[in-house]
User: What shape does this take?
Amino acid sequence: MDNFEYLNQISQSNRPVKHSFKQSGPKTSLIVKLCAAGIVLFFLLMALGSMLGNLGGKSNDLTKQLYTRTANLNTTLNTYNRSLKSSQLRAIGVSLSAILTNASNQLSGYLSANSKDKDVLALDEKTSASETALIEELNTSLTNAQLNGVLDRYYDNLIGLQVSLLLSQTSQLLARTKDANLISILTNFHTSLETIHQSIEAYSSN
Assistant: This one.
């Protein structure tokens, strides 16, 4: 399965948000659902564009991008986890944060040992702009949900999508690298992300 097919699968399996910010009738509910669908589509298009732009890149560049996205998402989790009302959802967020912290440290160490670049973690301008836009859109969506008192309702949907995108990134990088150390890091990271993804799906189905 290539990256485009994988992202399509994510899009099809990602259920639309069933809650509205205000219970003012079917029209408002439809608008909120359309907004949620638009957010999901934005993330998918951003991620797909970033992946396609890196198809010809070296695995070192993809590793930097994975490190950046992992670190950015972890910062977001640390910002919003404390505001969640559900203890189950908070526990998932804390577990995911621990996984991201471990992966970030390992990826940073790997890049420091194997990159000849002056700034081993620096992205090229285009990829950096793409990653910045991605995390800013996520933060905006979570902030709006928090301000409207419905953070829990949107958190599992949006963070679940981010986990899916990270799974796609790790799969892509695993297919491109032959470095045993990097493969070990990515394999463990991928397995941990799959566990979190299953937990989020189980929470969403309740």
Observations:
- The chain has seven helices and no strands.
- Residues 15 and 86 are 20 Å apart (CA to CA).
